[in-house]
Write a structure and sequence with these properties.
The complex is a heterodimer of chains A (117) and B (326). Chain A is an alpha+beta fold and 117 residues long. Chain A has a single domain (3-116), classed as Arc Repressor Mutant, subunit A, CATH 1.10.10.10. In chain A, 68% of the residues lie in helices and 15% in strands. Chain A has a 3-stranded antiparallel β-sheet with strand order 1-3-2. Chain B starts with a helix and ends in a 7-residue tail after the last helix. The radius of gyration of chain B is 24 Å and the shape is globular. Chain B is mainly alpha-helical and 326 residues long. The longest helix of chain B has 38 residues, at 282-319. Chain B has 2 domains: 4-69, no CATH class; 82-319, no CATH class. In chain B, helix 12 (215-239) runs antiparallel to helix 13 (244-267). Classes of the chains: A alpha+beta (117), B mainly alpha (326). Chains A and B meet through helix 1, helix 2, helix 3 and strand 3 of A and helix 2, helix 4 and helix 8 of B.
Amino acid sequence: MKPSESAAEDALLENLRLELRRGGLVLAVLGQLRREHYGYTLRKALAERDLAVDEGTLYPLLRRLESQGLLSSEWREEDKRQKRFYTLSPAGRRVVRQLVAEWRGLNVAITRILEDE
Amino acid sequence: MTTPLIDRYLQTVRRSLSTPRRDDIVRELAEDLHERVADREAALGRPLTDDETKALLEQLGHPLALATRYGPQRHVIGPALFPIYWTTLKISLGGSALVNLAIAIALLVSGASPARALGPLAAFPFTIAIIVFGWVTLIFALIDLNLPRLVSTAGFELRGLMDRPSTAPTGPPRRWTILAEIVGSTIFLGWWLAIPQAPFLVFGPAAAFLALAPVWQQVHLPMAALWLASLALLWAVLLRPDWARGSVISRLGSDVLGLSIAFILLRADALVQLAPHAEATTGALDAVDAINRLGRVVLAIWILAASWSLLQGLYRLIRTPSSPNA
Protein backbone atom coordinates (compact mmCIF):
# COMPACT_ATOMS: atom_id res chain seq x y z
CA MET A 1 0.00 0.00 0.00
CA LYS A 2 1.33 3.47 -0.93
CA PRO A 3 1.91 5.96 1.93
CA SER A 4 -0.78 8.29 0.48
CA GLU A 5 -3.33 5.41 0.41
CA SER A 6 -2.40 4.45 3.95
CA ALA A 7 -2.87 8.05 5.13
CA ALA A 8 -6.26 8.27 3.40
CA GLU A 9 -7.33 5.00 5.02
CA ASP A 10 -6.20 6.27 8.43
CA ALA A 11 -8.21 9.46 7.94
CA LEU A 12 -11.27 7.48 6.88
CA LEU A 13 -10.93 5.15 9.86
CA GLU A 14 -10.61 8.13 12.20
CA ASN A 15 -13.77 9.70 10.76
CA LEU A 16 -15.74 6.47 11.10
CA ARG A 17 -14.43 5.91 14.61
CA LEU A 18 -15.50 9.41 15.66
CA GLU A 19 -18.90 8.93 14.05
CA LEU A 20 -19.38 5.60 15.84
CA ARG A 21 -18.26 7.07 19.14
CA ARG A 22 -20.38 10.24 18.93
CA GLY A 23 -23.75 8.56 19.41
CA GLY A 24 -22.40 6.20 22.06
CA LEU A 25 -20.93 9.11 24.00
CA VAL A 26 -24.29 10.89 24.27
CA LEU A 27 -25.88 7.72 25.62
CA ALA A 28 -23.00 7.13 28.05
CA VAL A 29 -23.27 10.69 29.42
CA LEU A 30 -27.04 10.49 29.75
CA GLY A 31 -26.76 7.05 31.36
CA GLN A 32 -24.15 8.22 33.85
CA LEU A 33 -26.26 11.25 34.74
CA ARG A 34 -29.05 9.08 36.07
CA ARG A 35 -27.07 9.97 39.19
CA GLU A 36 -26.11 13.58 39.82
CA HIS A 37 -22.58 14.65 38.89
CA TYR A 38 -20.61 17.78 38.22
CA GLY A 39 -18.30 17.88 35.20
CA TYR A 40 -15.11 16.70 36.82
CA THR A 41 -16.63 13.73 38.67
CA LEU A 42 -18.66 12.80 35.58
CA ARG A 43 -15.51 12.66 33.50
CA LYS A 44 -13.77 10.56 36.16
CA ALA A 45 -16.74 8.20 36.41
CA LEU A 46 -16.73 7.71 32.63
CA ALA A 47 -12.96 7.20 32.59
CA GLU A 48 -13.22 4.56 35.35
CA ARG A 49 -15.52 2.67 32.98
CA ASP A 50 -12.92 2.94 30.18
CA LEU A 51 -14.61 5.81 28.38
CA ALA A 52 -12.16 8.69 28.43
CA VAL A 53 -13.69 11.98 27.28
CA ASP A 54 -11.77 15.23 27.01
CA GLU A 55 -13.19 18.36 28.62
CA GLY A 56 -13.38 20.15 25.29
CA THR A 57 -15.94 17.57 24.21
CA LEU A 58 -17.74 16.90 27.48
CA TYR A 59 -18.61 20.42 28.66
CA PRO A 60 -20.07 21.67 25.36
CA LEU A 61 -22.01 18.37 25.14
CA LEU A 62 -23.47 18.92 28.61
CA ARG A 63 -24.59 22.43 27.62
CA ARG A 64 -26.14 21.14 24.41
CA LEU A 65 -28.03 18.34 26.17
CA GLU A 66 -29.24 20.85 28.73
CA SER A 67 -30.44 23.26 26.05
CA GLN A 68 -32.29 20.32 24.46
CA GLY A 69 -34.13 19.82 27.74
CA LEU A 70 -32.56 16.44 28.55
CA LEU A 71 -30.52 17.67 31.53
CA SER A 72 -31.08 20.11 34.34
CA SER A 73 -28.29 21.79 36.26
CA GLU A 74 -27.62 24.05 39.22
CA TRP A 75 -24.65 25.69 40.92
CA ARG A 76 -24.19 24.35 44.44
CA GLU A 77 -21.48 24.42 47.07
CA GLU A 78 -19.46 21.29 47.80
CA ASP A 79 -16.18 21.17 49.73
CA LYS A 80 -16.42 24.97 50.09
CA ARG A 81 -16.42 25.43 46.32
CA GLN A 82 -19.22 26.21 43.92
CA LYS A 83 -19.80 23.45 41.36
CA ARG A 84 -22.32 23.02 38.58
CA PHE A 85 -24.25 19.77 39.13
CA TYR A 86 -26.03 18.02 36.27
CA THR A 87 -28.75 15.39 36.34
CA LEU A 88 -31.34 13.98 33.95
CA SER A 89 -34.53 16.01 33.56
CA PRO A 90 -37.87 14.12 33.44
CA ALA A 91 -37.72 14.32 29.63
CA GLY A 92 -34.12 13.06 29.77
CA ARG A 93 -35.19 10.02 31.82
CA ARG A 94 -37.82 9.10 29.24
CA VAL A 95 -35.40 9.54 26.35
CA VAL A 96 -32.67 7.49 28.08
CA ARG A 97 -35.07 4.58 28.61
CA GLN A 98 -35.87 4.50 24.89
CA LEU A 99 -32.25 4.99 23.85
CA VAL A 100 -31.07 2.16 26.11
CA ALA A 101 -33.62 -0.18 24.53
CA GLU A 102 -32.46 0.96 21.09
CA TRP A 103 -28.81 0.47 22.03
CA ARG A 104 -29.38 -3.04 23.38
CA GLY A 105 -31.29 -4.05 20.24
CA LEU A 106 -28.54 -2.66 18.03
CA ASN A 107 -25.86 -4.33 20.09
CA VAL A 108 -27.54 -7.73 19.81
CA ALA A 109 -28.04 -7.32 16.06
CA ILE A 110 -24.47 -6.22 15.37
CA THR A 111 -23.04 -8.96 17.59
CA ARG A 112 -25.03 -11.53 15.60
CA ILE A 113 -23.85 -10.10 12.31
CA LEU A 114 -20.22 -10.08 13.37
CA GLU A 115 -20.41 -13.61 14.79
CA ASP A 116 -21.62 -14.86 11.42
CA GLU A 117 -18.25 -13.96 9.88
CA MET B 1 -6.10 28.06 42.49
CA THR B 2 -5.52 29.62 39.11
CA THR B 3 -2.23 30.64 37.56
CA PRO B 4 -1.65 33.51 35.11
CA LEU B 5 -1.46 30.90 32.33
CA ILE B 6 -4.86 29.44 33.19
CA ASP B 7 -6.34 32.93 33.59
CA ARG B 8 -5.11 33.96 30.14
CA TYR B 9 -6.40 30.77 28.59
CA LEU B 10 -9.83 31.23 30.15
CA GLN B 11 -9.96 34.89 29.16
CA THR B 12 -9.19 33.92 25.56
CA VAL B 13 -12.00 31.35 25.68
CA ARG B 14 -14.34 33.96 27.16
CA ARG B 15 -13.55 36.51 24.44
CA SER B 16 -14.21 33.86 21.77
CA LEU B 17 -17.61 32.82 23.13
CA SER B 18 -20.58 34.48 21.51
CA THR B 19 -23.22 33.20 23.95
CA PRO B 20 -24.60 35.40 26.75
CA ARG B 21 -23.75 32.50 29.12
CA ARG B 22 -20.02 32.98 28.56
CA ASP B 23 -19.28 33.85 32.20
CA ASP B 24 -21.09 30.74 33.38
CA ILE B 25 -19.20 28.54 30.91
CA VAL B 26 -15.82 29.99 31.86
CA ARG B 27 -16.65 29.59 35.57
CA GLU B 28 -17.36 25.90 35.00
CA LEU B 29 -14.13 25.41 33.02
CA ALA B 30 -12.18 27.24 35.75
CA GLU B 31 -13.66 24.92 38.36
CA ASP B 32 -12.70 21.85 36.32
CA LEU B 33 -9.16 23.13 35.84
CA HIS B 34 -8.90 23.87 39.54
CA GLU B 35 -9.77 20.26 40.40
CA ARG B 36 -7.44 18.84 37.80
CA VAL B 37 -4.54 20.96 39.00
CA ALA B 38 -5.30 20.08 42.64
CA ASP B 39 -5.43 16.34 41.86
CA ARG B 40 -2.22 16.46 39.87
CA GLU B 41 -0.39 18.46 42.53
CA ALA B 42 -1.59 16.06 45.24
CA ALA B 43 -0.24 13.13 43.19
CA LEU B 44 3.11 14.84 42.59
CA GLY B 45 3.39 16.32 46.08
CA ARG B 46 4.44 19.70 44.69
CA PRO B 47 3.02 22.61 42.66
CA LEU B 48 2.82 22.20 38.89
CA THR B 49 5.50 23.82 36.77
CA ASP B 50 4.56 26.18 33.94
CA ASP B 51 5.29 23.47 31.39
CA GLU B 52 3.02 21.00 33.20
CA THR B 53 0.24 23.62 33.36
CA LYS B 54 0.68 24.28 29.63
CA ALA B 55 0.45 20.56 28.89
CA LEU B 56 -2.77 20.42 30.90
CA LEU B 57 -4.26 23.35 28.98
CA GLU B 58 -3.17 21.89 25.65
CA GLN B 59 -5.39 18.88 26.38
CA LEU B 60 -8.35 21.28 26.30
CA GLY B 61 -7.41 22.39 22.80
CA HIS B 62 -7.15 25.78 21.18
CA PRO B 63 -9.33 28.30 23.08
CA LEU B 64 -11.05 29.40 19.88
CA ALA B 65 -11.79 25.78 18.90
CA LEU B 66 -13.10 25.08 22.39
CA ALA B 67 -15.34 28.16 22.28
CA THR B 68 -16.61 27.13 18.84
CA ARG B 69 -17.84 23.83 20.26
CA TYR B 70 -20.24 25.73 22.49
CA GLY B 71 -21.87 27.30 19.45
CA PRO B 72 -24.58 25.78 17.28
CA GLN B 73 -23.47 22.79 15.23
CA ARG B 74 -22.30 23.86 11.80
CA HIS B 75 -22.49 21.60 8.81
CA VAL B 76 -20.93 23.52 5.93
CA ILE B 77 -17.68 24.24 7.78
CA GLY B 78 -16.79 21.78 10.54
CA PRO B 79 -15.54 22.84 13.98
CA ALA B 80 -11.93 21.91 13.20
CA LEU B 81 -11.71 24.34 10.29
CA PHE B 82 -14.20 26.94 11.51
CA PRO B 83 -11.77 29.13 13.51
CA ILE B 84 -9.47 29.70 10.53
CA TYR B 85 -12.47 30.14 8.21
CA TRP B 86 -13.90 32.79 10.53
CA THR B 87 -10.58 34.64 10.75
CA THR B 88 -10.10 34.55 6.95
CA LEU B 89 -13.64 35.79 6.40
CA LYS B 90 -13.20 38.70 8.80
CA ILE B 91 -9.87 39.70 7.19
CA SER B 92 -11.31 39.43 3.65
CA LEU B 93 -14.43 41.42 4.49
CA GLY B 94 -12.45 43.99 6.46
CA GLY B 95 -9.95 44.43 3.61
CA SER B 96 -12.72 44.84 1.01
CA ALA B 97 -14.52 47.35 3.25
CA LEU B 98 -11.30 49.36 3.64
CA VAL B 99 -10.79 49.54 -0.14
CA ASN B 100 -14.37 50.75 -0.58
CA LEU B 101 -13.89 53.28 2.20
CA ALA B 102 -10.70 54.58 0.55
CA ILE B 103 -12.55 55.03 -2.76
CA ALA B 104 -15.38 56.88 -0.99
CA ILE B 105 -12.93 59.20 0.79
CA ALA B 106 -11.06 59.89 -2.46
CA LEU B 107 -14.34 60.77 -4.17
CA LEU B 108 -15.40 63.07 -1.31
CA VAL B 109 -12.00 64.81 -1.24
CA SER B 110 -12.19 65.41 -4.97
CA GLY B 111 -15.52 67.18 -4.59
CA ALA B 112 -17.94 64.44 -5.69
CA SER B 113 -21.43 64.69 -4.25
CA PRO B 114 -21.97 62.72 -1.02
CA ALA B 115 -24.56 60.56 -2.77
CA ARG B 116 -22.06 59.59 -5.47
CA ALA B 117 -19.19 59.09 -3.05
CA LEU B 118 -21.03 57.21 -0.33
CA GLY B 119 -23.47 55.28 -2.53
CA PRO B 120 -21.02 52.44 -3.31
CA LEU B 121 -20.10 52.24 0.35
CA ALA B 122 -23.74 51.94 1.37
CA ALA B 123 -24.23 49.20 -1.22
CA PHE B 124 -21.14 47.29 0.02
CA PRO B 125 -23.04 44.78 2.24
CA PHE B 126 -25.27 43.80 -0.69
CA THR B 127 -22.58 43.57 -3.37
CA ILE B 128 -18.89 42.99 -2.67
CA ALA B 129 -19.47 41.58 0.84
CA ILE B 130 -21.77 38.86 -0.49
CA ILE B 131 -19.27 37.91 -3.22
CA VAL B 132 -16.38 37.73 -0.73
CA PHE B 133 -18.48 35.74 1.73
CA GLY B 134 -19.52 33.31 -1.02
CA TRP B 135 -16.00 32.66 -2.28
CA VAL B 136 -14.43 32.23 1.14
CA THR B 137 -17.21 29.91 2.30
CA LEU B 138 -17.14 27.84 -0.89
CA ILE B 139 -13.39 27.30 -0.77
CA PHE B 140 -13.41 26.38 2.92
CA ALA B 141 -16.37 24.04 2.43
CA LEU B 142 -14.44 22.23 -0.33
CA ILE B 143 -11.36 21.94 1.87
CA ASP B 144 -13.47 20.70 4.77
CA LEU B 145 -15.08 18.12 2.51
CA ASN B 146 -11.96 16.82 0.80
CA LEU B 147 -9.03 17.34 3.10
CA PRO B 148 -9.87 15.98 6.56
CA ARG B 149 -6.38 14.51 6.69
CA LEU B 150 -4.80 17.97 6.54
CA VAL B 151 -7.15 19.31 9.20
CA SER B 152 -6.64 16.44 11.59
CA THR B 153 -2.87 16.79 11.54
CA ALA B 154 -2.80 20.57 11.90
CA GLY B 155 -2.60 20.94 15.66
CA PHE B 156 -1.93 24.04 17.70
CA GLU B 157 0.81 25.08 20.02
CA LEU B 158 -0.28 26.66 23.27
CA ARG B 159 3.17 28.19 23.52
CA GLY B 160 2.31 30.34 20.50
CA LEU B 161 -0.75 31.68 22.33
CA MET B 162 0.92 32.24 25.66
CA ASP B 163 4.42 33.38 24.86
CA ARG B 164 5.97 35.92 22.59
CA PRO B 165 9.14 34.30 21.24
CA SER B 166 12.20 36.50 21.46
CA THR B 167 13.28 35.58 17.92
CA ALA B 168 11.35 34.90 14.76
CA PRO B 169 10.76 31.20 14.08
CA THR B 170 13.04 29.83 11.41
CA GLY B 171 11.60 26.35 10.88
CA PRO B 172 9.12 25.30 8.21
CA PRO B 173 5.73 27.08 8.40
CA ARG B 174 2.82 25.22 10.00
CA ARG B 175 0.13 23.70 7.84
CA TRP B 176 -2.52 26.13 9.06
CA THR B 177 -0.49 29.04 7.73
CA ILE B 178 0.06 27.40 4.36
CA LEU B 179 -3.59 26.40 4.14
CA ALA B 180 -4.62 30.00 4.84
CA GLU B 181 -2.22 31.22 2.14
CA ILE B 182 -3.66 28.73 -0.36
CA VAL B 183 -7.21 29.86 0.40
CA GLY B 184 -6.24 33.53 0.17
CA SER B 185 -4.31 33.02 -3.07
CA THR B 186 -7.14 31.01 -4.65
CA ILE B 187 -9.68 33.69 -3.79
CA PHE B 188 -7.38 36.36 -5.13
CA LEU B 189 -6.74 34.43 -8.36
CA GLY B 190 -10.47 33.89 -8.98
CA TRP B 191 -11.12 37.56 -8.29
CA TRP B 192 -8.25 38.64 -10.54
CA LEU B 193 -9.35 36.46 -13.47
CA ALA B 194 -12.93 37.77 -13.23
CA ILE B 195 -12.00 41.47 -13.24
CA PRO B 196 -11.91 42.05 -17.07
CA GLN B 197 -15.50 40.83 -17.38
CA ALA B 198 -16.63 42.43 -14.15
CA PRO B 199 -14.87 45.70 -13.19
CA PHE B 200 -17.63 45.86 -10.62
CA LEU B 201 -15.44 43.52 -8.52
CA VAL B 202 -12.87 46.30 -8.13
CA PHE B 203 -14.99 49.41 -7.93
CA GLY B 204 -18.34 48.14 -6.77
CA PRO B 205 -21.20 50.33 -8.06
CA ALA B 206 -18.60 53.06 -8.81
CA ALA B 207 -17.78 50.96 -11.93
CA ALA B 208 -20.54 53.00 -13.62
CA PHE B 209 -18.04 55.84 -14.06
CA LEU B 210 -14.65 54.30 -13.20
CA ALA B 211 -12.58 51.85 -15.27
CA LEU B 212 -9.10 50.37 -15.02
CA ALA B 213 -6.38 52.10 -17.08
CA PRO B 214 -4.79 50.22 -20.05
CA VAL B 215 -1.70 49.33 -17.99
CA TRP B 216 -3.74 46.64 -16.23
CA GLN B 217 -4.20 44.78 -19.53
CA GLN B 218 -0.41 44.44 -19.78
CA VAL B 219 -0.05 42.93 -16.34
CA HIS B 220 -3.26 40.89 -16.17
CA LEU B 221 -2.23 37.56 -17.74
CA PRO B 222 1.42 37.50 -16.59
CA MET B 223 0.25 38.14 -13.06
CA ALA B 224 -2.37 35.37 -13.25
CA ALA B 225 0.18 32.87 -14.60
CA LEU B 226 2.79 33.73 -12.02
CA TRP B 227 0.21 33.64 -9.23
CA LEU B 228 -0.87 30.19 -10.40
CA ALA B 229 2.76 29.01 -10.22
CA SER B 230 3.03 30.42 -6.71
CA LEU B 231 -0.16 28.56 -5.76
CA ALA B 232 1.23 25.28 -7.13
CA LEU B 233 4.36 25.79 -5.05
CA LEU B 234 2.24 26.36 -1.92
CA TRP B 235 0.46 23.04 -2.55
CA ALA B 236 3.83 21.35 -2.93
CA VAL B 237 4.94 22.79 0.41
CA LEU B 238 1.67 21.69 2.02
CA LEU B 239 2.07 18.11 0.85
CA ARG B 240 5.78 18.11 1.68
CA PRO B 241 5.90 19.95 5.02
CA ASP B 242 9.56 19.08 5.49
CA TRP B 243 10.48 21.08 2.38
CA ALA B 244 11.34 24.29 4.24
CA ARG B 245 13.30 25.68 1.31
CA GLY B 246 10.23 25.45 -0.93
CA SER B 247 8.15 27.70 1.29
CA VAL B 248 10.89 30.31 1.34
CA ILE B 249 11.19 30.14 -2.47
CA SER B 250 7.40 30.45 -2.73
CA ARG B 251 7.41 33.64 -0.65
CA LEU B 252 10.34 35.04 -2.61
CA GLY B 253 8.51 34.33 -5.86
CA SER B 254 5.42 36.16 -4.62
CA ASP B 255 7.49 39.14 -3.51
CA VAL B 256 9.44 39.37 -6.78
CA LEU B 257 6.21 39.03 -8.76
CA GLY B 258 4.47 41.68 -6.70
CA LEU B 259 7.39 44.08 -6.97
CA SER B 260 7.64 43.68 -10.77
CA ILE B 261 3.95 44.41 -11.18
CA ALA B 262 4.07 47.32 -8.74
CA PHE B 263 6.94 48.96 -10.63
CA ILE B 264 5.10 48.63 -13.97
CA LEU B 265 1.98 50.15 -12.40
CA LEU B 266 3.94 52.96 -10.75
CA ARG B 267 5.45 53.98 -14.08
CA ALA B 268 2.09 54.00 -15.86
CA ASP B 269 0.36 57.31 -16.72
CA ALA B 270 -2.77 56.31 -14.82
CA LEU B 271 -4.16 53.46 -12.76
CA VAL B 272 -7.85 54.26 -13.28
CA GLN B 273 -9.72 56.30 -15.86
CA LEU B 274 -13.25 57.36 -16.64
CA ALA B 275 -15.48 54.53 -17.83
CA PRO B 276 -16.10 54.67 -21.64
CA HIS B 277 -19.68 55.89 -21.38
CA ALA B 278 -19.29 58.03 -18.26
CA GLU B 279 -19.88 61.76 -18.44
CA ALA B 280 -16.60 63.72 -18.14
CA THR B 281 -17.74 66.19 -15.51
CA THR B 282 -15.23 68.15 -13.46
CA GLY B 283 -16.16 66.17 -10.35
CA ALA B 284 -15.65 62.81 -12.08
CA LEU B 285 -12.27 63.87 -13.52
CA ASP B 286 -11.17 65.15 -10.13
CA ALA B 287 -12.22 61.84 -8.58
CA VAL B 288 -10.14 59.90 -11.12
CA ASP B 289 -7.16 62.17 -10.45
CA ALA B 290 -7.51 61.74 -6.67
CA ILE B 291 -7.74 57.94 -6.93
CA ASN B 292 -4.66 57.85 -9.18
CA ARG B 293 -2.67 59.93 -6.72
CA LEU B 294 -3.82 57.86 -3.76
CA GLY B 295 -3.03 54.65 -5.68
CA ARG B 296 0.53 55.79 -6.39
CA VAL B 297 1.12 56.58 -2.71
CA VAL B 298 -0.22 53.14 -1.71
CA LEU B 299 1.97 51.48 -4.37
CA ALA B 300 5.07 53.30 -3.16
CA ILE B 301 4.43 52.24 0.45
CA TRP B 302 3.76 48.67 -0.67
CA ILE B 303 7.00 48.58 -2.71
CA LEU B 304 8.98 49.57 0.38
CA ALA B 305 7.28 46.89 2.51
CA ALA B 306 7.68 44.18 -0.17
CA SER B 307 11.34 45.08 -0.68
CA TRP B 308 11.97 44.62 3.03
CA SER B 309 10.12 41.28 2.94
CA LEU B 310 12.21 40.22 -0.08
CA LEU B 311 15.45 41.01 1.73
CA GLN B 312 14.28 38.99 4.75
CA GLY B 313 13.33 36.11 2.44
CA LEU B 314 16.72 36.12 0.75
CA TYR B 315 18.40 36.05 4.14
CA ARG B 316 16.22 33.05 5.17
CA LEU B 317 16.97 31.28 1.89
CA ILE B 318 20.66 31.52 2.59
CA ARG B 319 20.16 30.19 6.12
CA THR B 320 17.58 27.44 5.36
CA PRO B 321 19.07 23.98 4.71
CA SER B 322 17.94 22.31 1.48
CA SER B 323 16.68 19.28 3.45
CA PRO B 324 15.83 18.69 7.11
CA ASN B 325 18.90 16.55 7.56
CA ALA B 326 21.31 18.82 5.83
